[in-house]
Specification:
Structural class: alpha/beta
Bound molecules: zinc ion
Low-confidence stretches: none
Distance between the termini: 37 Å
Largest sheet: 5 strands, parallel
Number of strands: 7
Length: about 230
């Protein structure tokens, strides 16, 4: 069946990448649902902006009102029982001895996709969409294309039902991700993503920049700012 006739579930965190993926899914599939995960993240602001973004999207993308279905918020707070990270506890954001930043939450995307695939199975959805990216990323091994291809195979076998994981940003840098948003919804969508998504690791929504809200100094803000500047200059 053509993707235009299929249904998809988007892993939507409230950040720039998954917001762009949500817009992509609305242009690609017939029906789109969203899933957000509460995993005890230190800064709840990402969860708060999710619904604001979805509401605003209904005005910016004409297809949204006809295609957008239920939003599912899943409790994966067991992540906090598996050990502290800088995303879930008051720890410094720095490079760890294993060569990964302390913002790495081990197994997070594996859990997210497994939960999303089970939910999708129940809802008759075979397509999962995530904003993982290997091009301009923080080195998280569970964002790699190979990890997600292996997971796709494992989930399809384990559910005895074909699961397809789509990662439209996998080979785009952050500048190209802004470009994709522009292709999908023009300046209106770019402004919406800039103003209504949240990426900052410190949960800062009090400082406004050209590229949106954030502390301006954490690695996530740095990446977002550099991508914005490169895209605007190009
Ligand atoms: Zn920040």
């Amino acid at each position: 069946m053509a993707l235009a006739d299929e249904r998809a579930l988007v892993l939507f965190s409230g950040g720039q990448d998954s917001a762009t993926c949500l817009a992509w899914a609305l242009k690609t599939f017939a029906h789109v649902e969203t899933a957000g995960f509460d995993y005890g993240q230190r800064h709840r602001v990402e969860l708060d902006v999710r619904l604001q973004f979805i509401a605003a999207l209904l005005g910016a993308i004409p297809e949204a009102s006809a295609k957008l279905g239920a939003d599912h918020r899943l409790d994966l707070s067991l992540v906090t029982q598996l050990g502290e990270t800088a995303m879930t506890a008051d720890r410094a954001i720095e490079m760890g001895a294993n060569g990964l930043p302390t913002t790495f939450v081990p197994g997070r995307n594996l859990l997210f996709f497994t939960a999303a695939a089970a939910l999708a199975y129940r809802r008759g959805i075979r397509h999962l969409v995530g904003g993982m990216c290997e091009t301009d990323y923080s080195g998280y091994p569970d964002c790699r294309d190979d990890t997600l291809k292996a997971l796709q195979a494992a989930l399809s076998l384990g559910l005895d039902s074909r699961v397809t994981i789509h990662t439209p940003l996998m080979w785009l840098d952050k500048a190209a991700t802004w470009g994709l948003a522009h292709d999908l919804g023009g300046e209106a969508l770019v402004c919406l993503i800039r103003d209504k998504t949240h990426t900052c690791y410190l949960g800062d929504r009090s400082h406004e920049h050209d590229w949106g809200y954030g502390c301006g100094t954490c690695p996530a803000c740095d990446l977002r700012a550099k991508g914005w500047t490169k895209w605007r200059a190009g």
